[in-house]
């Protein structure tokens, strides 16, 4: 076998790392559920950066066989290295892009893994008896230095416990990275008004005369991780407020629109309404549903609900 072939064979783990990066990116991009994306996102963010970092650091040292103890030790070292690299990558993305986004972090980590893997292949290629590279560690027995092939030999029991702890850490941190926390709004519903040619979240109409018209822009942003079909129902309501209880005593339907948004897509629709209900406790309401709404839309049945309060004075009266 040629020297070049030997060098490539010695770095087969790094070529596998490159393939895993590609697969992880594809799965994170097209995965329909968090259950599908979670293992690959955890692998990309919490294992591969540390693995290539350690591989680069010990590129000129002989690696031991892939025993269970060696695998456990390398996994633990990979996790620790990844936890050191990940915050730095997040900080870099925030500084460059102005905000930390999922794809910004994935791109930064993927670039780091691939670049360090490539540099490690080059360093391993230079390791030879003729180049002066150290193929064995110090010691009378010629045992490999660096972790198991990288780490020094240790207790099997301690190695198992360390691997279990690392696995639990991966599961916990991976879930935190890829699964939204309970109650996190994954679809944003908001109301805007136009001021000076721009849409802003203030200066809502708060006082109208009966029969007068006003305009509010209804905005929806989909961050569900998939395409979603929505239905927006807008109403004018007069309510009675008793402590924390709000009871709708009269309502007028304004509009109902169905539309589909891809993941990350936003929609803004201008809604004009006339003040046909009189009183102090009148509000413009938008109910948002995923799919078809019920016959009688309410805040309790809606996926999202937003509203603005309006005082409506009687026409020609106090």
From TrEMBL:
Key words, A-Z: Membrane, Transmembrane, Transmembrane helix
InterPro entries: DUF1616 (IPR011674)
Pfam families assigned to the protein according to its UniProt record, in alphabetical order: DUF1616 (PF07760)
Transmembrane segments: 12-32, 38-59, 71-97, 103-122, 160-181
Start and end residues of each DUF1616 domain: 18-311
Protein's name according to its UniProt entry: DUF1616 domain-containing protein
Provenance organism: Halorubrum ruber
């Amino acid at each position: 076998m040629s020297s070049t072939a030997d060098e490539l064979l010695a770095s087969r783990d790094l070529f596998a790392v490159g393939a895993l990066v590609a697969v992880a990116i594809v799965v994170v991009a097209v995965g329909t559920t968090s259950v599908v994306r979670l293992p690959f996102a955890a692998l990309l963010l919490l294992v591969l950066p540390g693995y290539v970092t350690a591989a680069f650091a010990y590129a000129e040292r002989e690696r031991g066989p892939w025993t269970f103890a060696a695998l456990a030790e390398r996994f633990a070292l990979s996790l620790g290295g990844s936890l050191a690299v990940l915050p730095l990558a997040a900080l870099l993305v925030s500084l460059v892009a102005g905000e930390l986004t999922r794809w910004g972090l994935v791109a930064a980590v993927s670039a780091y893994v691939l670049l360090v893997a490539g540099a490690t292949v080059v360093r391993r290629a230079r390791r030879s008896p003729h180049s002066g590279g150290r193929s064995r560690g110090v010691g009378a027995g010629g045992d490999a230095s660096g972790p198991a092939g990288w780490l020094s030999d240790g207790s099997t029991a301690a190695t198992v416990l360390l691997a279990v702890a690392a696995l639990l850490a991966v599961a916990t941190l991976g879930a935190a990275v890829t699964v939204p926390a309970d109650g996190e709004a994954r679809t944003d519903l908001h109301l805007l008004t136009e001021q000076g040619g721009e849409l802003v979240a203030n200066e809502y109409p708060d006082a109208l005369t009966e029969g007068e018209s006003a305009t509010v822009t209804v905005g929806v942003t989909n961050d569900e991780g998939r395409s979603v079909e929505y239905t927006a129902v807008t109403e004018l309501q007069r309510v009675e407020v008793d402590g924390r209880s709000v009871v709708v005593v009269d309502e007028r339907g304004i509009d109902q629109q169905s539309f589909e948004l891809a993941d990350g897509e936003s929609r803004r629709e201008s809604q004009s309404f006339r003040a046909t209900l009189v009183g102090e406790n009148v509000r413009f309401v938008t109910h948002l549903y995923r799919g078809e709404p019920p016959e009688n839309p309410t805040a309790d049945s809606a996926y999202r609900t937003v509203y603005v309060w309006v005082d409506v004075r009687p026409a020609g009266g106090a």
